[in-house]
């Protein structure tokens, strides 16, 4: 990762728009634009925000029984994902930890997979090494953007009317200004919206066309993080990693019943044991009572002063209007309403365990 | 008499033996939207370089370091309820401390406006 940071097809546009560019997972990406994180966050909750997520890995899997083969690497049902539908899942390791989380779309004659930018270097070889007879093609010539927010449908439908009929987790190929795009109704903000894979030579033009809509403004990684945190969505590397299991991370919903019962994925022994007996810790929402944000790494103590866990993601929630956090607490703790203390700069600050998400998800079902 | 600047991006405005301290517009811009400030209280004593507060933006936490030795005369408690003022008027309404200067010679170690401008490039 010591290489010069890479540029997405939208790099020049970010600079032109005044984006504050930083190195994120080996890519120069905008943290925010002149509107600022708070403004961009509000833009997404109230109207529509456009994010460049081209740093994420787009992969095509092609081959006979490819969905069935992929099930050997993930604990979710892949063979039951109908054509035109997408599903959230994660690669697990032999110890039942999470190697990365990803979205798998059934595109008919192939699977379209999107993995985290920081884990591309791991995931691509992982699939190549373990999916026998499957052609694993990493896509380098397409941008990926996300248009998110209650007005996202209007913004995207203005250029591709068919998207208005899609529902959450649907995916299709659509024509945008004559370019063939893969459009999926999903995202990472808790809001309705789309992720759109665009041929790189048309990416700037199409992005500008969306931004020209009166309801749409560009937003950076800063707002993306505060939006996903309020929506209670895990960030790989913070809230989930090689040590955390899907049961600990409250991701049991992403493992369909047949897979939970029958196993047949890496780490099934630990995961099935935790499903039966409970995990030793679990990921919970945490609402600090005061104004001080509790960041990743902050120690969590129960009322008698014993350490029961640590914050994994935390910051200020602009829609909540105060600090919000997620973290792991040991078994026996974690019921909503439990009063805890967060040790911020050496001082115990009161907080409460709450149900996730902090902000109601607003998907089009 | 005058306004001085520290390498930690603070401004220090001196009147008699009282210095008013805040963060520069450049610092406020780098921090982004400020959502929280933790300050010392009146009569707290400190030395140059001590951590005398924390400012948190949506992005991250940043410490405030004492630009000189002194004692807090007054902290701008309005900021606790309205930390966004640090973005709106960092070099004016959003002053952070009034400090009784312990050693005026330390002001010589700070920069003037031209020096600060070239420091931040």
Brief write-up:
Chain A has 365 residues and is an alpha+beta fold.
Features:
heterodimer; A: alpha+beta; Gyrase A, domain 2; Elongation Factor Tu (Ef-tu), domain 3; 6-stranded mixed beta sheet; 6-stranded antiparallel β-barrel; globular; B: 121 residues; alpha+beta; OB fold (Dihydrolipoamide Acetyltransferase, E2P); 6-stranded antiparallel beta sheet; 3-stranded antiparallel beta sheet; 9 strands; 19% helix; 39% strand
Query: CATH top level of chain B?
Result: Mainly Beta
Tally of individual domains of chain B: 1
CATH class of the largest domain in chain A: Alpha Beta
Please tell me what the overall shape of chain A is: globular
CATH domain topology of the largest domain in chain A? Gyrase A, domain 2
CATH arch. level architecture of the largest domain in chain A: 2-Layer Sandwich
Q: What's the story with the biggest beta sheet of chain A?
A: 6 strands, mixed
The assigned structural class of chain A equals alpha+beta
Estimate percent helicity of chain A. 10-25%
Quaternary: heterodimer
The interface involving the most residues is between: A-B, 17 and 13 residues
- Based on CA atoms alone, the radius of gyration of chain B comes out at 13 Å
Number of strands of chain B: 9
SSE series of chain A = HEEHEEHEEEHEEHEEEHEHHHEEEEEE
Q: Order of helices and strands of chain B, N to C?
A: EEEHEEEEEHHEH
What does this structure look like?
The complex is a heterodimer of chains A (365) and B (121). Chain A is α+β, with helices and mostly antiparallel strands. Helix content of chain A is 21%, strand content 33%. In chain A, the strands form four sheets. In chain A, strands 10-11-12-9-3-13 form a six-stranded mixed sheet. Chain B is of the alpha+beta class. Chain B is 19% helix and 39% strand. Chain B is globular. Chains A and B meet through helix 2 of A and strand 4 and strand 6 of B.
